[in-house]
Structure formats: C-alpha cells, structure tokens
Design a protein that fits this description.
Elements lengths: L6 H23 L9 E5 L6 H15 L8 E5 L2 H6 L3 E2 H5 L15 H6 L5 E5 L6 H18 L17 E6 L3
Parallel strand pairs: 1-5, 2-3, 2-4, 4-5
Helix pairs in contact: 1-2
C-alpha cells in the first residue's frame, strides 16, 4: 500500500492500523477503561489524497479486519453525495439526529441506535470543515449517551465519559 501513497498518507494509515492493533491487545488484557481512543485530523487541500486514505482505511477494515461498514466502523459526511462517494452515510444518520427537527425536538434512534452502535469502534468524518461546531457537539453528546448505555469502552477509569462515547475518530478535510 505504501507504493500507492505518499509518506503523509501512509503515516495516517499506519496510525489507524497501530490503533487497531493496540485495541486488540487491550481487549486481550481487558483494560479497556484505561485506553485512550484515537482522535486525529487529516487535512490538506484538494487533490492531496484524503479520499485515497479513507478508501485504504476502508479496505483495511473490510479485507484485513473483516469488519462491516455501518457496524464496526462508520464513514460519514455532512452531505449525502460525499458520503455515498466513500460508501458511507450522512453524519445525521450515523448519530440518529433528525436534521429537520426543531432544536428542542427529540432526536431519532434510542434503543435502535444503541443496538446499531454496539460494536462500533471507529467514526471517520469526511469534509469536517463543512460540519458546524453545533453538529459536531450534537454528535458527541448523542454518541456519549448512546454508547454509555451499552458499551464498556465509554468511560475512563474515573467514570468520566470519553469523547464520542469512546469511539476512535478520524476527521478529514480542508480548512482553506
């Protein structure tokens, strides 16, 4: 895979692979509460290969780890067209948030969302520069409450909720 990617692209893929390996070791040791999820930003202008890295991560997840998109990992984007291009979903769908609801209305999901997120370990967000701070916070809150109900990797040792419910998060985008 390195021959098809430049050094920076390979570095991001290596970070993801190393985190997956670390989590495999952590599960063996049953020390998930002390584990710190990966939070990483991959950024750069158009044409630098962010989508290539996301596709390589997807290939690794599906071909090597035998994970299913939408189960162990999610690829999301604000716009449906971008999500479809990467084989993912909109961020609203992933987090069970109704994008057309009034601010005080109930979000969708509940137990159904909790069941769907039961085995999820990764959230890859494409086009992060298009995601408002409010939506990102809503996703964080929703995942903290959802994963809190069903997961064991959700809390640090002092029972403080981990960001995004303990999921590993890779944000990708161009802030220029």
């Amino acid at each position: 895979a390195k021959a098809e990617m430049n050094d920076e692209q390979h570095e991001v893929l290596a970070r993801v692979v190393n985190r997956v390996l670390a989590e495999t070791e952590i599960k063996r040791d049953e020390d998930t509460r002390k584990s710190v999820p990966m939070s990483h930003l991959m950024h750069g202008g158009p044409g630098v290969g962010k989508s290539t890295v996301i596709k390589k991560i997807r290939d690794f997840s599906e071909d090597v780890m035998k994970w299913k998109i939408g189960k162990q990992f999610h690829i999301g984007s604000l716009q449906a067209i971008m999500a479809v291009e990467l084989g993912g979903e909109t961020l609203h769908h992933i987090a069970g948030i109704n994008p057309f609801a009034e601010v005080n209305e109930q979000t969708i999901g509940g137990d159904k969302l909790a069941k769907r997120m039961l085995q999820t370990r990764w959230l890859i967000i494409d086009e992060i520069s298009m995601v408002s701070a409010r939506l990102l916070a809503d996703i964080d809150v929703k995942l903290r409450s959802t994963v809190r109900q069903i997961g064991t990797q959700k809390c640090a040792g002092d029972i403080v909720d981990k960001p995004f419910g303990g999921l590993n998060v890779l944000c990708c985008g161009d802030f220029w």
